[in-house]
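Give me structure tokens for this 188-residue protein.
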Amino acid sequence: MSPFVLGVAILLGIVTAGAGIISILFSAGTLSLTSAQQFLGTTAGKAILYAFGGVLLAVSVHFASLFHRGHRQLARFTQDGEWGRIEISPHALRELVSEIMRDEVGIDRFQVRLRHMDDGLSIGITTTLLPEDGVAEIGQRIQETLSRRVAERTGVEVREVSVLVSNVHVHEEEPHMPEKENEHTDAS
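Here you go.
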């Protein structure tokens, strides 16, 4: 545990113990709300409240930054290279998968989902096909192409490629509207 985190943990322990002692003193009647209110109205009381609020704010900012940093680290796809760690952001991987889908598979309408798996990556593709497309053939081509090309370009092992055809999109021709004849209304 780092010295800063240890210091924060000790400080939180002291604050928690102090809150417990104050609660007990209020319950026993030794400390009253009016005397506490009078003390907190003085300059020393206000200074203690400002310091206490500042410490709690600093602790919360620190833990929020630790959470954000840890979450960002977990979101990256990493591998150990010969001279150190190589990290790839989910955004970069999504862009790569999208490029492969458009340029090599020939599909323009799709969504990409990425998920960490043990020692690799899971790719989920949701797409719309045309009625004349063979779902099984295109699904297999997507799986084979993505698993091979992503591994070749990034070094990240692709453990799974799931394909969901969510819709079969029919190219609709413009509906042929019959020309309207001039309609006359009789005012009689």
